[in-house]
Amino acid sequence: MPVKTGSEYIERINQNLPDVWIAGERVQRPISEHKAFKGLMATQASMYDMQHAEESQATMIYCSSLTGDPVGLSFKQPKTKRDLVMRRQMMQSWASVHHGFLGRSPDYMNTAIMAFSAAAGVLEEKYPEYASNLKRYYEYCKENDITLSHVFIQPKAGRASTFLRTFEEPESARVVEKNKDGIVIRGAFLLDTQGATSDEIFVFPPPFSLSVAEESPHSFAFAVPSNLKGVSYVCRESFVGGESTYNYPLSSRFEEMDTLVLFDDVTVPWDRVFVYGDENMSSRLMEESHFHTHAGTQIMCKNIAKTEFLLGTIEMMVEAAGLDSHDHIIEKVTEVIVALETLKAFQLAAENGAALDQWGSMLPNKKPLLAANVYFQKIYPRLIEIVQLIGASNLIMILDEKEFNTDMSNQLNRYMKNIDISAKKNVQLSRLAWELSVSSFGGRQTVYERFFFGNSSMVNKRLYTDYQGGRHKYMDRIKTFLS
To answer: Fewer Cβ atoms within 10 Å of its own Cβ: the N or the C terminal residue of the chain?
Structure first.
C-alpha cells in the first residue's frame, strides 16, 4: 500500500480500537469523533492529503526501490546533500500546516525508524536475526505509511537506583519471560505522545544497568501494533478547550495527547524484536544510528515553523496596539527575530556541513543541531514571556465569541476594537496569544520544549561531550599563544 490519504489515516486509526482510557472512562466511540482527538486527527489527515494533492505531491513523495510505489519522503535514507534538502522541504511543508505545535508529527518517527534501520549493521555480526527484523520493519512502515508513536522513558519508580530495589520487586519495565512466540513484557512507559492516534508503537528504553547478568531483562527494543492485547493507554487530561477555532485556535487543532502506556504481560513476537538482553548493544544502536542527528533535522523544521508563528502573532499584537514605535517593544520583537535567524543558520550549517557516515547516510553536521537543541530549550520560554509582556491584560480579558451575538454586541464592537482591527478580530487575536502563553495547552507546549530531548543537563552534556575535539583544539591554541 503506497502513501495514504487523510481519510485512510482516520479510518485505519478508528478500526484499530486500542485500549484507551481518559478521565476514568474507556474510549468506546470511533476515536476520531472523541473531542480529545478530533482536532488533532483532522489536522494530520490534512497533512496526509498533501501526499496526494496535485500542487504538493511532487515534494512529498519518492518512488520506492522495493515496489515502485510512491512512499513518504520523510522515510527516505538521505545519501546526498540534495536528498537532505528534499527531505527538509517536505518536512517544512508539513510544519507549515501544524506550525510547529505537533512535537510528534508523523515525520519525526519516520525519520527515526529510518535511522535505526540504516544502522542495523551494528547488530549484524552478533544478532543477524535482529538486524533483519529491524530492516524488514522499516520497509513495512515505509511501504504501508505507518503512523508510529514511541516511548523511551519510564516512570520515576522504574528508574530508581539498584540500592532501593534490594528488598522489593523492580518496577522498571522488563522481560518476564521468553518463549517460542517471543518475549513477554511487563511494565509502564511515560509520555507516549500520540500513542492513541497511531498505528504502532516503537519501544526503546535506555539501559539502566540494573542487571549484571549477561542477558539483562531490562534491555530491549521492539515495535508492536497499538491495539496488541495487553497494551493500554492512559491519557492525561485533555487540553482541548473546545471545538471553536475562534475561542481555541490552537488546542482545537493541535492538541496531541500524551499517554502512559501499560504493558500487562504482552507477548512481543520474535520478528518484532530488534534488541534483547544486551545492554551494550542497545547503547550502540542508539548512538551509532545517529538518531539524535537525523531526528534533529526534523525538529529544526518544527522549531523554525513555531518561531515564525510566534513572530507573526507578536507582530500582529504590536501593530494592533500601535506599539511599534516603543523602544522596549522593538527590543522584544528583535529578540524573536534573532531567535528565528539563529535557528535558520543552525539548520543551514548542519545541512552544508553534512558528510557520509559509515552506513552510507548523508549525515548532517551534528554540532549545529546539538547547539540548536540547547538554544531552543532556553529561548522558547523567553519567547512565550515576550508574548505575555506584550499581551499584558489582553491575555486575561478574553471574551467568548458568543458575546458578539448578544444585545451588548454594539458596545463591544465600539470598545474592544483596536488600531485597524475590529473588536471581534482583536478579541480573536487575544485568544490566540492567550492559548499560546497562558492556557493549559500553552503551558504543556512550554514544558514539552524544555524537555524535548531530555533535561537541560542531559542536552548540555550531549553537546559538551561531542564538542570535546573543538574544545581541546581551541585550548591548545591558547597554550601556544601564552607560550
So the answer is: C
CA-nearest of 440, 69, 25, 99 to 240 is: 440
pLDDT in tens, 60-107: 999 998 899 999 999 999 999 999 999 999 999 999 999 999 999 999
Phi, psi angle pair for 39, to nearest 5°:
-65, -45
| DSSP designation for 163 | G
Nearest to 400 by CA among 417, 435, 424: 424
Short-list 147, 133, 143, CA closest to 67: 143
pTM above 0.90, yes or no: yes
In angstroms, rounded to a whole number, what is the distance separating the alpha carbons of residues 114 and 119? Answer: 9
In whole angstroms, give the CA distance from residue 91 to residue 93.
5
- Kindly report, residue by residue over 433-480, the tens digit of the pLDDT: 999 999 999 999 999 999 988 889 989 999 999 898 889 999 999 999
Q: From residue 330, give the alpha-carbon distance in Å to each of 159, 173, 343.
A: 46, 51, 20
Q: Give the count of beta carbons closer than 10 Å to the beta carbon of residue 115.
A: 23
Residue 72: partners with Cβ closer than 8 Å, 6 or more residues away: 3, 51, 60, 61, 106, 107, 110, 142, 145
Burial grade of 214 (CB within 10 A; 0-12, 13-18, 19 or more): exposed
Q: State how far the Cα of 34 lies from the Cα of 38, in Å rounded to an integer.
A: 6
**pLDDT digits 0-9 by tens, 166-223:** 445 557 899 999 999 999 999 999 889 999 999 999 999 987 654 555 789 999 999 9
- For residue 354, report the phi and psi dihedrals to the nearest 5 degrees: -70, 150
- Average pLDDT for 340-367: 97
Q: Where do we find the cell 531483562?
A: 217
